[in-house]
Amino acid sequence: MNTHHTNYARIEDDYKLFEVVTCKNPQQILRYSQQQPDVESPLWVSSMNKLALTKVPKCAHCGSKMICEFQVMPMLFSLQPYLMCVDWDTIVVYTCSNITKCVPNFAKGENYLEEFAFVQFSKDFSKVKYGTPDQINAQKSKQPHNQKVEESGETDPDVIEAKQLEEQRALKKAEKNKKRREKKKQKQAELKQNSQQVNA
Q: Which of 83, 91, 99, 155 has the most crowded CB, counting CB atoms within 10 A?
Protein backbone atom coordinates (compact mmCIF):
# COMPACT_ATOMS: atom_id res chain seq x y z
CA MET A 1 0.00 0.00 0.00
CA ASN A 2 1.30 3.45 -0.88
CA THR A 3 1.23 5.38 2.43
CA HIS A 4 1.61 8.76 0.70
CA HIS A 5 -1.55 8.29 -1.39
CA THR A 6 -3.45 6.90 1.60
CA ASN A 7 -2.56 9.91 3.75
CA TYR A 8 -3.35 12.33 0.91
CA ALA A 9 -6.81 10.79 0.54
CA ARG A 10 -7.47 11.61 4.20
CA ILE A 11 -6.72 15.30 3.71
CA GLU A 12 -9.92 17.29 3.34
CA ASP A 13 -10.72 19.10 0.09
CA ASP A 14 -10.73 22.57 1.65
CA TYR A 15 -7.14 22.20 2.79
CA LYS A 16 -6.06 20.74 -0.57
CA LEU A 17 -7.50 23.78 -2.35
CA PHE A 18 -5.92 26.11 0.19
CA GLU A 19 -2.51 24.47 -0.37
CA VAL A 20 -2.78 24.64 -4.19
CA VAL A 21 -3.78 28.32 -4.19
CA THR A 22 -1.34 29.56 -1.54
CA CYS A 23 1.70 27.75 -2.96
CA LYS A 24 1.61 30.29 -5.83
CA ASN A 25 2.33 33.07 -3.35
CA PRO A 26 3.44 31.58 -0.02
CA GLN A 27 4.27 34.99 1.51
CA GLN A 28 0.77 36.40 0.99
CA ILE A 29 -0.69 37.64 4.27
CA LEU A 30 -3.77 39.45 2.90
CA ARG A 31 -5.99 37.90 0.24
CA TYR A 32 -8.62 40.05 -1.45
CA SER A 33 -11.61 38.35 -3.06
CA GLN A 34 -13.95 39.08 -5.93
CA GLN A 35 -16.93 40.70 -4.29
CA GLN A 36 -20.05 38.73 -5.20
CA PRO A 37 -23.04 38.68 -2.79
CA ASP A 38 -24.08 35.07 -3.41
CA VAL A 39 -20.67 33.43 -3.74
CA GLU A 40 -18.73 31.95 -0.84
CA SER A 41 -15.38 33.48 -1.73
CA PRO A 42 -13.12 32.99 1.31
CA LEU A 43 -10.33 30.46 0.93
CA TRP A 44 -11.08 28.27 3.93
CA VAL A 45 -8.21 26.35 5.51
CA SER A 46 -10.46 23.61 6.84
CA SER A 47 -14.01 22.31 6.52
CA MET A 48 -14.41 22.84 10.27
CA ASN A 49 -15.53 26.17 11.77
CA LYS A 50 -16.52 27.63 8.40
CA LEU A 51 -19.08 30.42 8.19
CA ALA A 52 -21.97 29.62 5.85
CA LEU A 53 -23.28 32.38 3.59
CA THR A 54 -26.63 32.22 5.42
CA LYS A 55 -24.86 33.01 8.70
CA VAL A 56 -23.14 36.16 7.49
CA PRO A 57 -24.90 39.09 9.23
CA LYS A 58 -26.53 41.92 7.30
CA CYS A 59 -24.91 45.36 7.22
CA ALA A 60 -25.60 47.11 10.54
CA HIS A 61 -25.86 50.46 8.72
CA CYS A 62 -28.22 49.77 5.79
CA GLY A 63 -29.31 46.13 6.11
CA SER A 64 -27.77 45.00 2.81
CA LYS A 65 -25.90 41.72 2.36
CA MET A 66 -22.31 41.65 3.51
CA ILE A 67 -19.67 40.05 1.31
CA CYS A 68 -16.13 38.83 1.83
CA GLU A 69 -13.69 41.64 1.05
CA PHE A 70 -10.40 40.15 2.24
CA GLN A 71 -8.92 37.65 4.65
CA VAL A 72 -5.86 37.57 6.88
CA MET A 73 -3.76 34.53 5.99
CA PRO A 74 -1.94 32.30 8.49
CA MET A 75 1.36 33.07 6.68
CA LEU A 76 1.39 36.12 8.96
CA PHE A 77 2.67 33.81 11.72
CA SER A 78 5.98 33.23 9.94
CA LEU A 79 6.58 36.99 9.71
CA GLN A 80 5.57 37.81 13.29
CA PRO A 81 7.02 35.14 15.63
CA TYR A 82 5.21 36.53 18.69
CA LEU A 83 1.92 35.47 17.08
CA MET A 84 2.89 31.80 17.21
CA CYS A 85 1.01 31.44 20.50
CA VAL A 86 -2.23 32.36 18.71
CA ASP A 87 -4.20 29.54 17.15
CA TRP A 88 -6.42 30.39 14.18
CA ASP A 89 -6.55 29.40 10.51
CA THR A 90 -7.78 32.58 8.84
CA ILE A 91 -9.68 35.79 9.64
CA VAL A 92 -12.30 36.76 7.05
CA VAL A 93 -13.47 40.38 6.87
CA TYR A 94 -16.92 41.07 5.40
CA THR A 95 -18.07 44.47 4.13
CA CYS A 96 -21.36 45.86 2.83
CA SER A 97 -22.25 44.89 -0.75
CA ASN A 98 -24.05 48.21 -1.25
CA ILE A 99 -20.74 50.03 -1.78
CA THR A 100 -22.13 52.94 -3.84
CA LYS A 101 -24.81 54.05 -1.35
CA CYS A 102 -23.72 52.69 2.04
CA VAL A 103 -21.22 55.37 3.06
CA PRO A 104 -20.48 57.16 6.35
CA ASN A 105 -22.60 60.21 7.15
CA PHE A 106 -19.83 62.73 7.67
CA ALA A 107 -22.37 65.41 8.68
CA LYS A 108 -23.25 63.29 11.71
CA GLY A 109 -19.61 62.72 12.57
CA GLU A 110 -19.38 59.22 11.08
CA ASN A 111 -15.89 58.51 9.78
CA TYR A 112 -16.28 54.81 9.09
CA LEU A 113 -18.87 52.02 8.94
CA GLU A 114 -18.84 48.85 10.98
CA GLU A 115 -17.66 45.70 9.18
CA PHE A 116 -17.75 42.09 10.31
CA ALA A 117 -14.78 39.81 10.94
CA PHE A 118 -15.05 36.04 11.32
CA VAL A 119 -12.24 33.97 12.83
CA GLN A 120 -11.89 30.42 11.56
CA PHE A 121 -10.28 28.71 14.54
CA SER A 122 -8.03 25.72 13.94
CA LYS A 123 -9.09 22.15 14.67
CA ASP A 124 -6.81 22.05 17.71
CA PHE A 125 -8.02 25.34 19.21
CA SER A 126 -9.95 23.54 21.96
CA LYS A 127 -6.78 21.64 22.91
CA VAL A 128 -4.72 24.79 23.51
CA LYS A 129 -3.41 24.78 27.08
CA TYR A 130 -3.45 28.01 29.03
CA GLY A 131 -1.51 28.83 32.18
CA THR A 132 2.07 29.30 33.31
CA PRO A 133 4.73 26.89 31.98
CA ASP A 134 4.79 25.16 35.39
CA GLN A 135 1.00 24.70 35.39
CA ILE A 136 0.99 23.32 31.84
CA ASN A 137 3.87 20.92 32.54
CA ALA A 138 2.25 19.77 35.79
CA GLN A 139 -0.93 18.99 33.86
CA LYS A 140 1.03 17.11 31.18
CA SER A 141 2.90 15.03 33.74
CA LYS A 142 -0.40 13.81 35.21
CA GLN A 143 -1.60 12.62 31.81
CA PRO A 144 -0.34 9.19 30.61
CA HIS A 145 1.81 9.50 27.49
CA ASN A 146 -0.13 6.86 25.52
CA GLN A 147 -3.30 8.87 26.12
CA LYS A 148 -1.66 11.95 24.60
CA VAL A 149 -0.61 9.97 21.54
CA GLU A 150 -4.15 8.62 21.12
CA GLU A 151 -5.67 12.09 21.34
CA SER A 152 -3.27 13.49 18.77
CA GLY A 153 -4.21 10.72 16.33
CA GLU A 154 -0.55 10.47 15.32
CA THR A 155 0.72 7.06 14.20
CA ASP A 156 4.05 7.84 12.54
CA PRO A 157 6.78 6.50 14.92
CA ASP A 158 9.26 9.22 13.90
CA VAL A 159 6.75 11.99 14.59
CA ILE A 160 5.78 10.43 17.93
CA GLU A 161 9.43 10.12 18.95
CA ALA A 162 10.10 13.74 17.96
CA LYS A 163 7.13 14.86 20.05
CA GLN A 164 8.37 12.83 23.02
CA LEU A 165 11.82 14.45 22.80
CA GLU A 166 10.25 17.88 22.51
CA GLU A 167 8.12 17.27 25.61
CA GLN A 168 11.14 16.01 27.55
CA ARG A 169 13.12 19.12 26.62
CA ALA A 170 10.22 21.36 27.66
CA LEU A 171 9.96 19.58 31.03
CA LYS A 172 13.72 19.87 31.64
CA LYS A 173 13.65 23.55 30.74
CA ALA A 174 10.69 24.19 33.06
CA GLU A 175 12.43 22.31 35.89
CA LYS A 176 15.64 24.30 35.32
CA ASN A 177 13.72 27.58 35.39
CA LYS A 178 11.95 26.50 38.58
CA LYS A 179 15.27 25.73 40.31
CA ARG A 180 16.67 29.06 39.15
CA ARG A 181 13.67 30.93 40.62
CA GLU A 182 13.95 29.01 43.89
CA LYS A 183 17.67 29.80 44.09
CA LYS A 184 16.94 33.47 43.45
CA LYS A 185 14.29 33.53 46.19
CA GLN A 186 16.68 31.84 48.61
CA LYS A 187 19.40 34.39 47.85
CA GLN A 188 16.97 37.27 48.34
CA ALA A 189 15.87 35.80 51.68
CA GLU A 190 19.52 35.49 52.81
CA LEU A 191 20.25 39.10 51.82
CA LYS A 192 17.17 40.27 53.71
CA GLN A 193 18.20 38.30 56.79
CA ASN A 194 21.75 39.68 56.67
CA SER A 195 20.39 43.22 56.28
CA GLN A 196 18.16 42.77 59.34
CA GLN A 197 21.10 41.48 61.38
CA VAL A 198 23.24 44.48 60.40
CA ASN A 199 20.44 46.92 61.32
CA ALA A 200 20.00 45.18 64.69
A: 91
Tens digits of per-residue pLDDT, 19-64?
Answer: 888 888 888 889 988 666 666 678 898 888 889 888 999 998 899 9
What DSSP line would sit under the chain, residue for residue? Answer: --HHHHHHHHS-HHHHHHHHHHTTSTT--EEE----TTS-----S-STTPPPGGGSPPPTTT---EEEEEEE-TTHHHH-GGGGG--EEEEEEEEES-TTT----GGGT------EEEEEE-TTGGG---S-HHHHHHHHHHS-HHHHHHHHT---HHHHHHHHHHHHHHHHHHHHHHHHHHHHHHHHHHHHHHHHHHH-
Indicate the pTM of the whole model.
0.56
